[in-house]
Design brief:
The complex is a heterodimer. By secondary structure, chain A is of the alpha+beta class. Chain A has seven helices and six strands; from the N terminus they run E-H-E-E-H-E-E-H-H-H-E-H-H. Chain A has one domain (4-191): Alpha-Beta Plaits, CATH 3.30.70.20. In chain A, strand 2 and strand 3 form a beta hairpin. Chain B is an all-alpha fold. Chain B has a domain at 83-131 and 201-331: Transmembrane di-heme cytochromes, Chain C (Fumarate Reductase Cytochrome B subunit, Up-down Bundle). Classes of the chains: A alpha+beta, B mainly alpha. At the A-B interface, strand 2, strand 3, helix 2 and helix 3 of A face helix 4, strand 1, helix 5, helix 6 and helix 7 of B. Strand 2 of chain A pairs antiparallel with strand 1 of chain B.
């Protein structure tokens, strides 16, 4: 089974925020919530770097560990999902998450939290694949249709890549090797045929 | 002889010359380092890898820029959450459970060994008023809120392990939704009640010399001594000051957690949560002792808080100075 991973190539991301917009449109995410965001470090200074970040679907997910009602589960593809019918909106996953992925629609006075919403790796929730209930709560289930997350699929510079971790790593490794105008693997072109 | 002396001299001179030349060959090239270290010291420190600097910034949780507005959206990684997770799920949950169950076991063992602290003299039938109706209302309101908050709070910490197997996921979720609502709404109400108590009984709870003897005699709980006490004995005062310190910290940290609309950052929330959970554990452990002494631990103690009146024999045994005060007031009604 594949182990799904996201990877954002900081050398390629141009902070266009198209991944943010695409995600919001694809899943009809509630007002005020963005499952993905782009953060720029040293904005406006030479050498600035941008990273698109969402739920990273951690192996030992902190959100899962601290949830008082145990509403998280990891799929066979390594995607961390949650059950909104079980979620009580306590905010603990937001405290624990290193990436700031969990977000809450405001429900009631004083910023009372509604049911948590986060990136699903375009894999929906516990409901039947692409049923009306699933689309309503979690957005579209592209993985069930054999497609990868939309944010990565439509990234114009292919900075954001999503998919099986091994393939993503190979892809990134080949990029690193060829970076800077010419290959850094000196002698390979002369020595090897492919 | 002079020729050989001249020879020795020449040898000496050439030996010295050789030594000086070798030393110069060794030392002179090093002056370059000296020059560089004197002139280029500041720039040598500044030269770090710019890419490493970027990721160091990210790892330290420094803020960048994000077009997405919202709570801390410009922070890529916050590290405090992992520490919080490990503290909460690890030592706090473990030792908290040991603390509360340990106190229960100790109280049960104490009850079996010591039994109820009986009245030494038979009831006189005469009673004095210990708590007015308003004081009792205040006490029971705070007590009820405390117990509700304790049960709902413990449910959020231990419910996943203790209640999900009983209620199932949907069942516990429904209960936890209600528990969260009750905890969040009643918390500030408890705070108001607690603060009224702290202000109302502040003066009478200042420690005096009498209390030192009270603690030395273990409040009369161990042994047969009857240490003196005013309206509040040493133990009650200790409970008061625990509430005045840990209880106040509990309330304010609770407010930080209860009102996310002010946009407090996760680090602040996490610290508040740790303070909240630690002070809550302390108060719950203490409250078990308070409840034990006030009910089955002491004969005639509960009457004071239910009917408002206590028997004179009870007052004489447990709060002798307070009884004397009351008697003096009766004789001189002006004071």
């Amino acid at each position: 089974m594949a182990r799904m991973k996201f990877l954002c190539d900081a050398e390629r991301c141009i902070e266009c925020n198209a991944c943010v917009t695409a995600c919001k449109n694809e899943h009809e995410v509630p007002w005020g919530i963005n499952r993905r965001r782009v953060v720029t470090i040293d904005d406006g200074i030479p050498g600035e770097k941008s990273i698109s970040v969402a739920c990273m679907h951690c192996t030992d997910a902190p959100c899962q560990a601290v949830c008082p009602v145990d509403c998280f589960y990891t799929t066979a593809d390594g995607v961390v999902l949650h059950d909104k019918d079980i979620c009580i909106g306590c905010g603990y996953c937001f405290y624990a998450c290193p990436f700031g992925a969990p977000q809450y629609p405001q429900e009631g006075a004083f910023g009372a939290r509604g049911k948590m919403d986060k990136c699903t790796f375009c894999a929906g929730g516990p409901e039947e694949d692409n049923s009306a209930a699933e689309v309503e709560k979690y957005g579209r289930n592209r993985l069930a249709e054999g497609k990868l997350p939309l944010c990565a699929e439509m990234c114009s510079t292919k900075a954001l890549i999503a998919g099986d971790g091994d393939i993503v790593a190979d892809l990134f490794r080949s990029r690193v090797v060829r970076r800077g105008g010419r290959p850094d693997n000196w002698g390979w072109a002369t020595a090897y045929k492919d | 002889m002079s020729a050989s002396a001249a020879m020795t001299n020449r040898k000496k001179t050439s030996l010295w010359a050789m030594l000086i030349i070798v030393l110069a060959i060794l030392v002179l090239p090093l002056t370059g380092y000296l020059y560089v270290s004197v002139t280029d010291q500041p720039t040598a420190v500044e030269q770090t890898n710019p890419r490493a600097d970027t990721w160091r910034q990210v790892r330290e949780g420094n803020k960048g820029y994000s077009a997405v507005t919202g709570q801390e959206t410009n922070v890529l990684i916050q590290g405090a959450g992992q520490n919080w997770r490990q503290l909460r799920n690890g030592p706090i949950a473990t030792y908290g459970a040991w603390l509360l169950s340990g106190v229960l076991v100790i109280l049960a063992a104490f009850y079996l060994l010591r039994g109820e602290v009986k009245l030494n003299h038979p009831r006189t039938g005469r009673t004095v008023e210990r708590w007015t109706l308003n004081e009792r209302r205040l006490h029971w309101t705070t007590a009820t809120l405390f117990i509700l908050l304790a049960i709902t709070g413990l449910s959020l910490l231990y419910g996943r392990y203790a209640l999900i197997p009983l209620l199932g996921y949907p069942g516990f979720s429904a209960y936890a939704t209600a528990a969260k609502w009750i905890h969040n709404v009643l918390g500030p109400v408890f705070m108001v009640a607690l603060f009224i108590i702290l202000i109302k009984w502040f003066k009478q709870n200042l420690f005096t010399k009498v209390d030192i003897q009270w603690f030395k005699d273990f409040g009369g709980m161990i042994g047969d001594k009857h240490p003196s006490a005013g309206k509040f004995n040493g133990g009650e005062k200790l409970w008061f000051w625990t509430l005045a310190s840990a209880g106040v910290a509990l309330c304010f940290s609770g407010l930080v957690l209860d009102f996310p609309n002010f946009g407090q950052e996760r680090f602040v929330i996490i610290v508040a949560h740790l303070i909240h959970i630690l002070t809550a554990m302390l108060l719950m452990a203490f409250s078990l002792g308070h409840i034990y002494i006030g009910t089955i631990g002491t004969e005639g103690a509960l009457e004071g808080m239910t009917t408002g009146h206590v028997d004179v024999a009870w007052a004489e045994q447990h709060h002798d100075l307070w009884l004397k005060e009351l008697e003096q007031q009766e004789q001189n009604p002006k004071h």
